[in-house]
Specification:
The chain is of the alpha+beta class and 76 residues long. It has helices at residues 24-28, 55-64; strands spanning 11-14, 33-35, 41-43, 70-73. The relative contact order is 0.33.
Amino acid sequence: MSTRSRTDHPTLRVDRVACTGHGVCANLLPGSIRLDEWGYPVVLTVAEGGLDDGDEARAAAVRWCPALALYADRSS
């Protein structure tokens, strides 16, 4: 796991309406996402201690999200 900031990578976003709380993203991106008390993902900022889990892990998490609720926002 890398300790670089994610500023040079697409920002991860969660579609809160589509998300059903499976937690796959948190398992694949333990440095970038934590689960809240209801099991829904919270994308961590660098200020919150978020780490870069890497491009491959990020792409896998987006691809494997069962609800298709996780996406990479390249406009940020």
